[in-house]
Protein: Retrovirus-related Pol polyprotein from transposon RE1
Organism: Sesamum latifolium
Amino acid sequence: YMEHPIEMHLLAAKRILYYLQGTRDYGVFYRKGEKLILLGFTDNDYTGDQDDRRSTLGYVFMLSPRAIS
């Protein structure tokens, strides 16, 4: 996108910035003394899309019972 930027790329970047501005006060809170355990889960499907032969990947990382990514 940096080599050939177009108006749509600028609009997408602005939309992301507006979203971040509106969620600035959001957060993940932990209790003092809570045991923190990091877990990661993944799932994939190699060439599961019979039309495009594309792979699909999904993941989630959790710190204690809260999703962080």
